[in-house]
Structure formats: C-alpha cells, structure tokens
Amino acid sequence: MTQAADTFARFPTLSSGQQYAFFFDVDGTLAAIQSRPEAVFIPEQVIAQLQQLAALSQGALALVSGRPIEQLDALAAPLHGPAAGVHGAERRLADGTIQRISLPDEVEQALRTELQEAMALWPGTQLEVKGMAFALHYRQAMQHEQDVLRLAEQSVKRFPGLALQPGKCVVEIKPTGIDKGAAINDFMQQAPFAGRVPVFIGDDLTDEKGFDAVNAFQGVSVKVGEGSSQAHYRLDDVDAVYGWLEKTLLLLEQDNVGKEFRL
C-alpha cells in the first residue's frame, strides 16, 4: 500500500551520486486533468525542466502514457525522446526506432463501428480512437458510466486478444499483455536506462503495473493524488510534482558540478 504523506514529507530526496532512470505519466502527473483530453497541456517551464532532467540523466527519461506517441510529441515539444504510448502498445527507443503492436484491420474497423454507434446514443461520452486501442470517456456523462463499462466488457468478450484497462472516468480497450509495467521493463533492459534506478510517477489505475515493475527493480514509485496504490510514495497533486521536479533538478545539477570539480 502507498504511504500517506504530505508533499515531500516521505518522498525521498534522490541520493547524490546515484544514477536514475525517469519515467513519467502525463495526464494527472505532468499535466492537470481537463474536462476533455484535447484540452490538456504541459506548462512550458515544466517541459524545459524535463529537457534539463533528460540531459542530466544522459537521456534516461521517458514519457509513459495512454496517449499515442504523436500526441505526446505535440504536448511535450520540443522534448523528443524515448516514449511509450497507448500503455506501451507503441514505443520509441532511445535511437528513435518506433515499435508498434496493431490490431488486425477487420477487428479495428468492426470494433470502431460498434463503439461509435453505441456511444452516439449517450450524449457527453467521447470515443477516442488510438489505432491499436480505444478509450471510452465518460467524464462529462457520469450517468452513462455503467452503460460505457458494459459496452467495453461486451466488446472484449466478442474480440479475443483484447483486454480492459480502467482509468479515471475512462475505460480503454487494448491488446492483451500491453501495460506500462511491460513498457518500463523493456526500457530498463536497454541503454541509456539499463543499470539505473528507475523512478516512476503516475496518478491512475493505469499506472499500477508501472509501480509494480519499478518496485521489482527496488526503484522509486510515486502515486500522485489520493487512492490506494502499490506505489511506495505519494505526492499530493500535479503542483507537487512540479515542485519535486524543481527540487530534483537542483540536486542533480549540484551533483554534476561536484563531479566536474573532482575531475
């Protein structure tokens, strides 16, 4: 279970001299939740700090999100580096190589039609098509929560090889075996992440597999906001994440200056 903590109170200051690999969720972690997904943004100062953190960690920083990589690039520009989109169904490695898991065309088309027709009957719901996955949003139509969940469950039963991923006011349909934990595990086997201590910050049910993976590496797992979690530490909200990011940059910059002085 996650530890109850005030901002910074039980979140460890990262150890000077240790090498870390940083993994960040986006919505609810680096960006405040908005009423509609397209309204989400990452403040320019935070993007600049992420660029600094990536440089100080020799590129060992990745965004790990339910959003497609194309959206992550637009949100985080000009930051452009390793990323896992659609919960890991698509991944960009440090060398720029992109790996994607896709649905068969006939499955994608049939499922898209089925979901569009059903959700058109429920005003306020929104279908987000991600190619290899679908997100069924109901934040603006909580009265249809059970309808949306039932639709998602029925769809997964009809199409083998698909699984549900619940989130905050959303349920996603994605290929089985795809999750943020698997994405982080894969990154940790490759340069520049391999051999480092992983740090993962996220806020949602979709991040729990990521916390499990980081815990297995004896890393630092951090839940943003309220709710039970497998994460070992907690930050109160998105603003607390920004404060931690600033504090961590200062630590790593001081550590870098110390190394230069010793040389």
Overview of the structural elements:
The chain is an alpha/beta fold. Helix content is 35%, strand content 20%. An 8-stranded mixed beta sheet has the order 5-4-3-2-1-10-11-12, with helices on both faces. It has a 4-stranded antiparallel beta sheet with strand order 6-7-9-8, with helices on one face. A hairpin with a 4-residue loop joins β6 and β7.
Write the layout of secondary structure elements.
Elements: E1 20-24, H1 44-56, E2 61-64, H2 69-76, E3 83-85, E4 90-92, E5 98-100, H3 105-119, E6 126-129, E7 134-137, H4 145-158, E8 162-167, E9 170-175, H5 180-187, E10 197-202, H6 208-216, E11 220-224, E12 233-235, H7 238-262
Helix pairs in contact: 1-7, 3-4, 5-6
**Fraction of residues in β-strands:** 15-25%
Total number of helices: 7
| Low-pLDDT stretches | 1-9
Gyration radius over CA: 19 Å
Head-to-tail CA distance between termini: 43 Å
Shape estimate: globular
Please give the number of β-strands. 12
Please identify the oligomeric state. single chain
- In round numbers, the mean pLDDT is 90
Query: N-to-C SSE series?
Result: EHEHEEEHEEHEEHEHEEH
Indicate the structural class: alpha/beta
List keywords for this structure.
single chain; 263 residues; alpha/beta; eight-stranded mixed sheet; four-stranded antiparallel sheet; globular
